[in-house]
Design a protein that fits this description.
By secondary structure, the chain is mainly α. The protein has a single domain (60-278), classed as MetI-like fold, CATH 1.10.3720. It contains 12 helices and no strands. The longest helix is centred in the first third of the chain and has 34 residues, at 64-97.
Length: 279
């Protein structure tokens, strides 16, 4: 029986890759307990007030601006993910199953938002909203307090626009191995199209749909450029908020916020993995 020895260089390469990927995250977490306000040099574990080493986490919970930015980010990411996943899944099914006029153009055009630089897309969306809102406000002669303007809604629409193509690509990859005979068997047994989709098709493509949703959610969470061009008063997200802090002294409060965000993302990924393993 032949045995294969694992090369020590392969092991070393794997260790170095993991260090390269996760060392910045570990440093960020450690610095969330830093006693220095400058957040440049680690001067020891903070121990202030009743929170002790979790002083910066307690300060974060008292920061209304950070909490508002977190709330806006979650609202935008959740709403855009739900809508983009629904649209992307339906579009992927249509492109995979049906032949219609303009199908080739539809397949090609969905790559444009992916390969287009975000700054170009952000400027284009800003110009579109400005022209549209100007036309509506002027045409309907809306009063100043009811005029359309940039805000939470425009950011959500923008995130949906650039998330849908990613969902389509992921779901279509899942559909490539889909056996249509399973659906035909369900309909032969008396199930209508809606029942077949809910009870047969959707459970089979659920891992792809969930992967597309997680990708859309992640893209929305950390997007800065498109959000920067389409945001308005009262719609500040966490990336925009952290960017604003860079103009001042960045305290370990930002590290505490990032640590909590990492934990939330890990929980979301864990739940997603659990669902996929269950499938």
């Amino acid at each position: 029986m032949s045995t294969h020895r694992r090369s020590p260089w392969l092991t070393l390469s794997a260790i170095l890759v993991y260090i390269f990927l996760y060392a910045p995250i570990l440093v960020l977490i450690v610095f969330s307990f830093n006693s220095s306000k400058t957040n440049i040099v680690f001067e020891g574990v903070v121990n202030k007030g009743p929170c002790g080493p979790f002083y910066w986490y307690c300060q974060l919970l008292q920061n209304e601006d950070a909490l508002d930015a977190t709330r806006n980010t979650l609202i935008i990411a959740t709403t855009s993910t739900i809508v983009a996943t629904f649209i992307g899944t339906m579009a992927a099914l249509a492109l995979q199953r049906y032949q219609f006029r303009g199908r080739n153009f539809s397949e090609t055009s969905m790559y444009f938002p992916i390969v287009t630089p975000e700054i170009v897309m952000g400027i284009g969306i800003l110009v579109l909203f400005s022209a549209l809102f100007g036309f509506v406000n002027t045409g309907l002669n809306l009063p100043p307090d009811r005029r359309l303007s940039l805000g939470l809604g425009t950011v959500i629409v923008s995130h949906i626009a650039f998330s849908v193509p990613f969902v389509i690509l992921v779901v279509r990859a899942r559909l490539h191995g889909f056996d249509n005979r399973v659906e035909e068997a369900a309909m032969d047994l008396g199930a209508n199209e809606l029942t077949t989709f809910v009870r047969v098709t959707l459970p089979l493509i659920a891992p792809g749909v969930l992967a597309g949703a997680m990708l859309a959610f992640t893209l929305s969470l950390d997007d800065f450029i498109i959000t920067f061009f389409t945001t308005g008063p009262g719609a500040t997200t966490l990336p925009i908020y952290v960017y604003g802090l860079l103009r001042r002294i960045v305290t370990p409060e930002v590290n505490a916020l990032s640590t909590i965000w990492i934990v939330v993302v890990l929980i979301a990924v864990g739940i997603s993995q659990w669902f996929q393993n269950r499938e």
